[in-house]
From TrEMBL:
Family under the similarity heading: Belongs to the short-chain dehydrogenases/reductases (SDR) family.
Superkingdom classification of source: Bacteria
Example of a GO MF term: oxidoreductase activity
Phylogenetic lineage: Bacteria, Bacillati, Bacillota, Bacilli, Bacillales
Signal peptide span: none
InterPro entries xrefs: NAD(P)-bd_dom_sf, Sc_DH/Rdtase_CS, SDR_fam
PANTHER family to which the protein is assigned, alphabetical: DEHYDROGENASE/REDUCTASE SDR FAMILY MEMBER 7B, DEHYDROGENASE_REDUCTASE SDR FAMILY MEMBER 7B
Oxidoreductase as UniProt keyword: yes
Name of the protein described by the UniProt record: SDR family NAD(P)-dependent oxidoreductase
Length: 249
């Protein structure tokens, strides 16, 4: 009963790695992808079927999806960020956020959905970000990429509903993972939010629960779900009252 086939992108570090490990412990058949060969080897030793790939490359995305058997759950987790003003980012940093955070998830859904449609079952779980609902200083491009995924997920859910395919989204705030160190080499952001950092194990467990109990979306911490709704209704007021939050980067 537990032999669901789970595909996880960005499985070599952070919450993706923990999701893969927890999925294996639950008896799921895990297909994990990422760029880090050593981390993939570690997952392979635990029983995962590993597939190396760079989600910046369309050819790699196409190959990965073609090599997969029919899967039950696709967890689109891979993401990158670079925290800086839009006018200070390099073109390479901008392109990478667009490629990994927007293009890759859309292509993955495009290539994986037809098999799910054919068998009339399946589940996509997208790992978004609270930045996809509320943008902040020095995260304009990152927020744009996550806003795009929020819109894509909401539309895709409607498109796949007639085929009994579930589409879920997880919107976490900052998580205590290597992502923060890569996004901000100065560590100033990590230090400014250290009191509210989410533990990766908690986020991973919420994702695992979604596999057997699909929901439309999960906001972490849950208070941020309410905050984002207020922001949508009165953005100028929220930005004024929460100025310290919007300038933590």
């Amino acid at each position: 009963m537990n032999r669901k086939r789970i595909f996880i992108t960005g499985a070599t570090s952070g919450i993706g790695k923990i999701i893969a490990e927890l999925s294996l412990k639950r008896g799921y058949e895990v297909f994990a992808t990422g760029r880090n060969e050593e981390a993939l080897l570690s997952l392979s030793k635990l029983g995962a079927k590993v597939m190396q790939g760079d989600l910046c490359q369309k050819a790699d995305i196409h190959r990965l999806c073609n090599e997969l058997p029919e899967i039950d759950v696709a967890i689109i987790n891979a993401g990158v960020g670079a925290f800086d003003n839009a006018f200070d980012l390099s073109e390479e940093e901008i392109d990478r956020m667009i490629d990994v955070n927007i293009r890759a998830p859309i292509y993955m859904a495009k290539y994986l959905a037809p098999n799910m449609i054919q068998k009339r079952s399946g589940h996509f779980i997208f790992i978004g970000s609270q930045a996809g609902k509320v943008a902040t200083k020095k995260a304009s491009v990152y927020a744009a990429s996550k806003h795009a995924i929020t819109g894509f997920v909401n539309g895709l859910r409607l498109e796949l509903a007639p085929y009994n395919i579930k589409v879920s989204a997880v919107y976490p705030g900052p998580i205590d993972t290597p992502f923060l160190d890569k996004a901000d080499s100065t560590s100033s952001y990590r230090n400014s939010v250290k009191g509210v950092l989410l533990q990766p194990e908690k986020v991973a467990m919420e994702v695992i629960r979604l596999i057997d109990h699909p929901k439309r979306e999960i906001n972490l911490p849950r208070i941020m779900g309410a905050t984002s709704k207020i922001y949508a209704a009165a953005p100028a007021l929220v930005e004024k009252l929460g100025k310290r939050f919007f300038t933590k980067k």
